[in-house]
Design a protein that fits this description.
heterodimer; A: 501 residues; Beta-Lactamase; Heat Shock Protein 90; 3 domains; five-stranded mixed β-sheet; elongated; B: 395 residues; alpha+beta; Thrombin, subunit H; 2 domains; eight-stranded antiparallel β-sheet; six-stranded mixed β-sheet; 10 helices; 26 strands
């Protein structure tokens, strides 16, 4: 029994001890778990804090991203706007017709600039009203209503134009004014910029957006101002062109009128000249017959076959005979000129030797040359020998020109005849050491009956037709004649003749 | 056997002439009988007479499509234009088309389910491969339409399609179904038989900041995030007041949409904010279920274009070397707005990636329907925002 009690007591002790140990173990475990929980809680807190920090960073990222995106968007918008603007400007500046400028602003350009509606008005000073030049996004009756409202308060718009001021719905300080414009133009947001050409009618351009979700920016305002400015320049160009074109038209008309008058005058001159030529020709013919009779009778009387003549009569008859010769010479020259002018003289052009013609002429004039002891120098190179001329006519040219040179060259003076080749022509120069021709007379000496007023001409008689005849003959050979002269030094007469091939 | 394809495009100002011009061009390229026609157009061509002209020219073949902000055509992006794709299908490829109209004005409990049933009506006993759907971009049921269709066609059945869109600022979009033009509806096309197809779906936005929980939402309206009015999330991140946020909402919604984390998926589902309500709730373009984990997303032009490249690669990878005859592109209009002048680059990436000679047609959409992961029969279809969805089909 006692043994049993002792055993039970021992067992109880063991149980108590075991329980105690278990309690201690549980306490240790609980302590450890509590620490673990605490550690985990601390880690969770740390994670939460990290997450919050990350969230704060996310907020920063988003705010920075918004700014960057806005900037990027504005930049993109500006770039695409400028691109469209450049295209549009190029198009509107290609036309020089004022009414075409606005017609070239097509709806797709306005759309690409980011706007839905566009209108442009120019102020007509005469009619005291705005004229609509452009409307995109408006029906006809809508734009007429817009115009009515603008005309009702035109001083507001004229004020903006005159002050070169743009306005947009971005201006919050002028909200009442901008709201009114928005209502008139049936848009939610808008930009109005003045069109300011240097000359002529001024006006304004308005671009607007109806959609309340789309907002305009300051960048848009700049673009619209540039567009309005370009329209102004295009208007200037067109107006300037119009002005220039009109002036040119006027000038062309005047030139045409003047040409017509001159042609008429020329025709008249030609007619007169023709009549003169015909008259001279007729008169000369009429004169030649009686002159021939006078000269014939005078010559017969001078022979003495009809009886001896008293000295006084002979003297007078000789004078009649001499004057008749001069008159015949004059009439012949006149008739030649008249024939040449009217084209009745046919040039019998043949290959001729220039040197031979000159030598023949010198032979004819040898007495005069000798009398005045003139030193004659002839320099005709072989390459200029072959000419294609009417020999008899060209001989007359040389007789006239060398004869004149002898006439105006003082005794013991010098005459030089030279020639040289210029392409398919020969130029002949006849130079004398005579008294020369005053500059004022040099152009006139080839005119009919013109005689230079000098002492020799006063003594030696002449018809004033020689050089005219020479000029006509040279021209009939498709040549040219001119003179270079200096008073008291001498003159050089130059002319060209065709070469023989 | 290959699918024969003919594409015609017109930008003629007269819609009637445009329809005639585009259809005749497509027909002359097809040179075969028309089995089905697809039409995508900008809003200027949304007119019954346009559909009548096309139907007269393609006769009994079904015609399906919708309006878009812009057309993606072989000639590039057309802001104003009409594109038609006509197909001649081999005998072993089957299609069935159907539509459901007036889904918000008629007591239709589940328009998606109804569309599914209508599509299946002509497809009993045939092997179905995938479905295409087009819905009005302004109806609130864009997300639920898919779940309705999935009830009939199966949860993992691949669907791809577009929410019709319109020019910026307009609130109406149009669906084209045979000779009918309508909104407030949905139309679909079921494909089956011996055909190859593949999808590529990517957006390119990355999650940012800590995860948040949608604590109260109903359909496409998110009331509370982490117990606070939903709008606070944006105010907190941007450091802006409510007025500025409302003013800049369109811009913010594109650059920083909400991303919904789908358990088991790598990609986040994006949601654009259409408006901020007076109580601070966010009206979204697509649903976010209550309890969803969301994050604010961030994207750039570069990440957007990178995603397009990835979508092209994914499309090709999922084909396992099989051939394809045509490409459809359903691209979000948000991407068009974000990319601006670089939008052309995105289309160039697609064309060069999938073959310059392969006929291609598409449009810019208000939302895209596509499996979140483009592994055939494994991805589940969702309603997306800001995403490019590529579909290639071959006989």
């Amino acid at each position: 029994m006692l043994l049993n009690e002792s055993l039970i007591s021992q067992i109880n002790n063991v149980i108590i001890l075991a329980s105690f140990i278990m309690i201690i173990a549980l306490v240790i475990l609980l302590t450890s778990k509590t620490e673990k929980i605490k550690q985990l809680e601390s880690e969770v807190d740390e994670l939460k804090r990290s997450l919050d920090e990350m969230d704060e960073q996310a907020k920063l990222i988003i705010r920075t991203d918004i700014e960057l995106n806005k900037l990027q968007e504005e930049l993109d918008k500006k770039m695409s706007g400028l691109y469209i603007l450049q295209r549009l400007s190029r198009i509107i500046t290609t036309t020089l017709q004022e009414n075409q400028i606005f017609a070239l602003i097509e709806p797709n350009y306005i759309e690409e600039l980011g706007f839905e509606k566009a209108s442009a008005f120019l102020w007509n000073e005469k009619e005291k009203q705005f004229i609509c030049c452009l409307h995109i996004g408006y029906l006809k009756d809508e734009i007429e209503t817009v115009k009515k409202f603008i005309d009702l308060k035109n001083e507001i718009y004229l004020n903006l134009i005159n002050n070169q001021r743009s306005i947009s719905s971005l201006r919050k300080d002028e909200e009442i004014f901008t709201k009114e414009i928005s209502e008139i133009f049936q848009v939610n947001s808008f930009i109005l910029a003045p069109i300011l050409p240097k000359e002529g009618e001024k006006g304004f351009l308005l671009l607007g957006i109806d959609n309340p979700e789309i907002s305009i920016t300051e960048g848009d305002e700049e673009l619209v101002m540039i567009l309005a400015n370009n329209i102004g320049q295009a208007l200037d160009n067109a107006r300037l062109f119009e002005e220039t074109w009109r002036a040119q038209q006027e000038l062309e008309y005047k030139v045409e009128e003047r040409t017509r008058q001159l042609t008429e005058a020329l025709e008249e001159i030609k007619k007169v000249s023709q009549r003169k030529t015909d008259f001279i020709s007729a008169v000369s013919h009429e004169l030649r017959t009686p002159l021939t009779s006078i000269k014939g009778y005078a010559s017969i009387l001078l022979t003495g076959k009809l009886g001896q003549l008293p000295n006084e009569v002979r003297e007078r008859l000789e004078r009649i005979n001499r004057h008749s010769d001069e008159l015949v010479h004059l009439v012949n020259d006149l008739l030649d000129i008249s024939r040449l002018e009217s084209g009745r003289t046919i040039m019998k052009q043949e290959p001729q030797n220039l040197k031979e013609i000159i030598d023949h002429t010198i032979d004819l004039l040898a007495v005069q040359l000798k009398d005045k002891r003139i030193d004659l120098i002839v320099n005709i190179p072989e390459e200029t020998f072959n000419i294609f001329v009417d020999r008899s006519q060209i001989e007359r040219v040389f007789i006239n020109l060398i004869g004149n040179a002898i006439k105006f060259t003082p005794e013991e003076g010098r005459i030089t005849i030279s020639s040289f080749k210029i392409k398919d022509q020969v130029q002949v120069d006849i130079t004398d050491t005579g008294c020369g021709i005053p500059e004022k007379d040099q152009e006139k000496i080839f005119e009919e009956f013109y005689r230079v007023d000098n002492p020799i001409n006063q003594i030696v008689k002449g018809t004033g037709l020689g050089l005219t005849l020479v000029k006509r003959i040279i021209e009939a050979h498709k040549g040219r004649i001119w003179v270079r002269s200096k008073e008291s030094v001498g003159s050089t007469f130059s002319f060209t003749l065709p070469m023989s091939t | 056997m290959a699918i024969k394809v003919g594409i015609g495009v017109s930008i003629h100002k007269d819609p009637l002439q445009a329809a005639k011009e585009a259809t005749e061009e497509a027909k002359s390229k097809l040179k075969e009988d028309v089995s089905i026609g697809f039409i995508f157009s900008s809003i200027e061509f949304a007119h019954p007479i346009v559909l009548k002209v096309i139907k007269d020219l393609i006769q009994s073949a079904p015609l399906i499509g919708c309006s878009g902000l812009a057309i993606i055509s072989p000639q590039g992006i057309l802001k104003r234009g009409l594109g038609i794709m006509l197909l001649n299908l081999p005998k072993d490829i089957y299609i069935a088309s159907a539509c459901v109209k007036q889904i918000n004005t008629q007591p239709i409990s589940d328009p998606g389910e109804l569309l599914g049933e209508n599509l299946m009506h002509g497809f009993k006993g045939l092997r179905r491969c995938f479905g295409m759907l087009f819905c009005d971009g302004f109806i609130p049921q864009s997300s639920t339409l898919i779940s309705g269709l999935q009830k009939v066609l199966g949860k993992s059945f691949p669907l791809i399609g577009a929410s019709a869109s319109n020019t910026s600022g307009s609130l109406k979009s149009y669906l084209y179904f045979n000779q009918d033009i309508f909104n407030d509806g949905v139309c679909g096309l079921l494909w089956g038989g011996k055909l190859n197809f593949s999808f590529g779906i990517k957006h390119g936005w990355k999650p940012l900041g800590k995860p948040r929980t949608v604590t109260h939402s109903e359909g496409n309206i998110v009331y509370k995030i982490d117990g606070l009015p939903a709008v606070k999330l944006y105010m907190e991140y941007l450091g802006w007041g409510l007025d500025k946020l409302k003013r800049e909402l369109k811009y913010i919604s594109i650059f920083y949409p909400l991303g919904v984390n789908i358990p088991g998926q790598e990609e986040y589902l994006l949601r654009n904010i259409l408006r901020i309500e007076e109580d601070g709730s966010l009206y979204l373009h697509g649903n976010i279920p209550e309890g969803s984990i969301i994050k604010l997303m961030i994207g750039t032009k570069e990440s957007c274009l990178q995603a397009t490249e990835q979508a092209v690669d994914e499309t090709k990878r999922n084909l396992y070397g099989k051939s394809y005859d045509l490409v459809f592109v359903f691209n979000s209009l948000s991407r068009y707005i974000l990319l601006g002048r670089r939008a052309k680059e995105e289309i160039k990436i697609i064309k060069e990636g999938l073959g310059k000679e392969v006929p291609l047609l598409g449009l810019y959409t208000l939302g895209e329907h596509a499996p979140l992961r483009a592994i055939a029969y494994q991805g589940m279809t969702y309603f997306h925002n800001q995403t490019v969805a590529l579909l290639v089909i071959g006989g």
